[in-house]
Design brief:
It is a single chain. The chain is globular, with a radius of gyration of 19 Å. By secondary structure, it is an alpha/beta fold. Helix 1 links the parallel strand 2 (about 15-20) and strand 3. The strands form two sheets. A six-stranded mixed beta sheet has the order 1-2-3-4-6-9, with helices on both faces. Strands 5-7-8 form a three-stranded mixed beta sheet. Helices cover about 50% and strands about 15% of the residues. The protein has two domains: about 5-195, 2-enoyl-CoA Hydratase, Chain A, domain 1; about 200-250, Lyase 2-enoyl-coa Hydratase, Chain  A, domain 2 (Orthogonal Bundle).
Length: about 260
């Protein structure tokens, strides 16, 4: 690929690195298209169990590449619809996704990170919903993600003032899951990814689906959806393996069936 580095290990962890370090990994048209391709591929491959999304050169992503007039023209409705497909493809990957954030994560780059299920940031990372300073409004799911993560008033503060916050401040307000010293970031994310890859794929996928739909209905709908998901889990080979392993006092070996 022109703009992404994709690495897979034997455990099923797929690490996708945004590779435009000279532009702080700003997302150009090639990267948008390649992200959509990779997100779809990870969702379809049974051997892929966890996605880790990160950036090269000490930064996560500086947002959409608005460097040229042709790029700016792409922010018309048809192009925005395509960008939305990328955000939805990430949201719908039926596997856990972790964003590993160092350096800057701003605009669409920040919302790309927030679209993952878990976000781990360096304490000194610099995050911003920078859109207002560019004469733009939120995109790539920011208007949906922010109030769910930090509440409505804090979401408006982040969006309307477009200030930068550090990774440590983002963790304190609940925008990211963890903020760590930069030197500890890789090892921490690798541990989380390994634990998720070793988990029951079907159960994790169904839990993710349930949580993503948590704001769509009331308690009755949630209970019904949980019941359907649990019925699928109980009938699975993984659940039988988990119970067998428990009684045999050994770690379970999950295969996603």
């Amino acid at each position: 690929m022109k703009t992404l580095q994709v690495e897979r290990n034997e455990a099923g962890v797929v690490t996708v690195t945004l590779e435009r370090p000279d532009k702080k990994n700003a997302i150009n048209q090639d990267m948008w298209e390649e992200l959509l391709e990779v997100f779809s591929e990870v969702g379809d491959r049974d051997t892929d169990r966890v996605l880790v999304l990160t950036g090269a050169g000490g930064n996560f992503c500086s947002g959409a590449d608005l460097g040229g007039e042709s790029e700016r023209e792409r922010h018309q409705l048809a192009r925005m619809h395509f960008f939305g497909q990328v955000g939805m493809a990430l949201h719908q990957i039926p596997k856990p996704a972790i964003a590993k954030v160092r350096g800057v994560a701003v605009g669409a780059g920040l919302n790309l990170a927030l679209g993952c299920d878990l976000v781990v940031a360096a304490e000194d990372a610099r995050l911003s919903e920078i859109f207002a300073k560019r004469g733009l409004s939120l995109d790539l799911g920011g208007s949906w993600l922010l109030p769910r993560l930090v509440g409505l008033h804090r979401a408006k503060e982040l969006a309307l003032l477009a200030d930068f916050v550090t990774g440590a401040e983002a963790a304190e307000m609940g925008l990211v899951n963890r903020a760590l010293p930069e030197a500890e970031l890789d090892a921490f994310v690798a541990d989380w990814a390994a634990r998720l890859a070793d988990g029951p794929p079907l159960a994790l996928s169904l839990s993710k689906q349930l949580l993503n739909g948590a704001y769509a209905g009331g308690l009755r709908e949630a209970l019904d959806a949980e019941g359907m998901a649990q019925a699928v889990n109980i009938a699975s080979d993984d659940a039988r393996e988990a119970f067998t392993a428990f009684f045999q006092k050994r770690p379970p070996r999950f295969e996603g069936r």
